[in-house]
Design goal:
With 185 residues, the chain is of the alpha+beta class. The chain has 3 helices and 9 strands. The protein has one domain: Lipocalin, CATH 2.40.128.
Length: 185
């Protein structure tokens, strides 16, 4: 490869990374946890895979107006995790919007930390399974900045006791519950 072509490819890669970073910055919400803890438990990806319902989140630009949000995780033969996020725009019956991505496990994290990519080879998103039910019925997901939080359940409408456990654990992890936006299903 000649020097001119290599320089152009480098500029494109840097420009794309800067654009992705700028977009992520524009979509950030307030910090809801200034001291995000490390994940509490190891994650068995075989048990974690499957369909999850988002029952609450910190609002963010890329999910603004989304209802009936789900995330489908599957294991790929190459060791990565496939990600399919789906939402209904504006209402539970609104038009469907999807985002496909992939994730890789962060070494040394007991599978509780992943890096996510929705933009080709760029793994820019952190996905930390901060806590989960022993039977994988619910999960609390965050990332190091404390600006993003997702409360996930295997059921679109968890019972009151399960919801209370999720909220108590979320608060114990240091999150501001007043910033949580409930998701309708």
């Amino acid at each position: 490869m000649n020097l001119k072509r290599a320089s152009l490819l480098l500029l494109l890669a840097v420009g794309t990374a800067a654009t992705v970073s700028a977009c992520a910055t524009l979509q950030r919400g307030p910090v809801g946890n200034s001291a995000v803890p490390q994940p509490a438990k190891a994650v068995d990806l075989t048990q974690y895979r499957g369909l999850w319902y988002e029952i609450g989140r910190y609002e963010n630009g890329f999910e603004r107006g989304c209802e009936a949000v789900t995330a489908q995780y599957d294991l790929r033969e190459d060791g990565l995790v496939s990600v399919l996020n789906t939402c209904r725009q504006g209402s539970v019956d609104g038009p469907e919007k999807t985002a496909r991505g992939k994730a890789k496990v962060v070494a040394g994290s007991d599978n509780a930390k992943l890096k996510v990519s929705f933009f080709g080879p760029f793994y820019v998103g952190d996905y930390w399974v901060l806590d989960r039910a022993d039977d994988y019925a619910w999960s609390i997901v965050g990332e190091p900045s404390g600006r993003y939080l997702w409360l996930l359940s295997r059921q679109p409408q968890p019972d009151d006791q399960t919801r209370a456990v999720i909220m108590q654990r979320t608060q114990a992890l240091g999150y501001d519950l007043s910033l949580i936006r409930e998701v309708r299903h």
